[in-house]
Specification:
single chain; mainly alpha; globular
Length: 231
């Protein structure tokens, strides 16, 4: 397993245990030989991840392409070029691809046809790791076009004819879950804004925590806070 995947596994395991502190996470690292052997690098990686989370909140108002570029540049504060290649090669490859794709999609001077050609050229230039990963996405986009309306209308018969009974049931259930989550998260975000407006910071923090505990599971809270990091 690549060292970056090992580091991420250790951090995720520590987060899921509910004891995400630097000391506890370092103790988790000591349990894996590969992590223990790279303990000094892991400690810097952990510090980087904590600082990166803070940086992402500061960058939230910027366009996504600028956020990604800043996050790539931020790596140089903690790691050498060799270490960056070791830890972030795949991530940076994807982020640079995303930046290039956003630049094409947001360029109002390009015609629709030229955008499509430039995007196709961009995809063709990517290494096998990215092009293979893009294939399922394209298939899902094609699939989405065929059942989007049926999902919106919850047309079981059409979905069953296309994908079978079990798949139709699952697709409708997933759509309902997405809609429920979207509605709930938007309502909670509105309440969070009101709590911040109506209370001093300490009271608001307490009331927001109570609000999230009342309506969300622990995993849902993580998801909500990832979507709305300013909460």
């Amino acid at each position: 397993m690549a060292i970056d995947n090992i580091f991420e596994h250790v951090i995720l395991a520590s987060q899921e245990s509910g004891e995400f502190t630097a000391l506890h996470t370092q103790q988790q690292c000591d349990k894996l030989a590969a992590c223990q052997e790279n303990n000094a690098l892991f400690n810097r990686y952990l510090s980087f991840k904590v600082a990166l989370a803070e940086l992402q909140q500061q960058l939230a108002h910027l366009p996504l392409s600028e956020q990604l570029a800043a996050m790539i540049a931020f790596q140089q504060r903690y790691f050498s070029e060799t270490e960056i290649a070791l830890l972030f090669a795949d991530d940076n490859q994807w982020q640079r691809y995303t930046i290039a794709k956003l630049a094409i999609n947001t360029d109002s001077s390009l015609t629709k046809e030229l955008k499509q050609q430039l995007l196709a050229n961009l995809d063709a230039e990517q290494p096998d790791e990215i092009t293979q990963s893009l294939q399922p996405t394209r298939q899902l986009q094609q699939l989405n076009g065929s059942y989007k309306d049926a999902l919106q209308q919850q047309d079981y018969n059409q979905l069953a004819a296309e994908f079978g009974d079990a798949a139709a049931t699952r697709l409708i259930a997933l759509q309902q879950q997405r809609l429920q989550w979207q509605t709930l998260s938007e309502q909670l975000q509105q309440q969070v804004v009101l709590l911040k407006q109506q209370n001093d910071p300490q009271q608001a923090e307490q009331k927001i925590a109570q609000l999230l505990d009342q309506h969300l599971t622990e995993n849902q809270q993580r998801r909500f806070l990832a979507l709305f990091p300013q909460t």
